[in-house]
Amino acid sequence: KGATCPARLVIAAELGADDKAQGIFESLNTKGIPLTTADLVRNYLLVGLSREEQVRLYNEYWNPIELMFGEDRDSMKLNSGLRMWLDIRYRKKRLHRAEDTYNSFKEYTMTVYKGTVEELLDELRLRLNHARQSAITTEISEIAGGAAALKNNNK
């Protein structure tokens, strides 16, 4: 049997010179299927760049970030990773709710962060990969510890 693909809705909006693309993107989100924090962050970082730069940064940084989390329904692991990264980088503002991550991310980039989009994406890729590797190491240790406990119980 052939694979099925869920229905998708594509919206094209022609913007004038004074229109704010990110604001329109966010308002469309409130009227349709909710976008993830990762969707909003990705668009926020790339929206003001040329098409060529968007494609380059997406391919070099954002796509590898998404791929490192593997099967990640609704980007839950990536959203959690972004929140953890922001908790470390933006100590002034503690996130009590996951829903606050995107607005805090925007605030951080507008008021604290002084680097380029590429430098930020590079740091995200590095830190999120490190966190993922730490989680894998912890999981392997727990599995090994469980196996050792089972072996000792069977003696």
What would your notes on this structure say?
The radius of gyration is 19 Å and the shape is elongated. The protein has 6 helices and no strands. It has helices at residues 21-30, 37-46, 51-68, 76-89, 101-111, 117-153. Residues 1-10 have low confidence and may be disordered. The termini are far apart. Helix 2 packs parallel to helix 5 and helix 4 crosses helix 6 (117-153). It has 155 residues and is an all-alpha fold. The longest helix has 37 residues, at 117-153.
- What's the helical proportion of residues? 55-70%
Alpha-beta classification = mainly alpha
C-alpha Rg (nearest Å): 19 Å
The total strand number stands at: 0
Which ranges are low-confidence, i.e. pLDDT below 50, for 5 or more consecutive residues?
Answer: 1-10
* Major β-sheet profile: none
Q: Order of helices and strands, N to C?
A: HHHHHH
What is the count of DSSP helices, taking H or I runs of 4+ residues? 6
- The outline comes out as elongated
First-last Cα distance: 50 Å
β-strand amount: under 5%
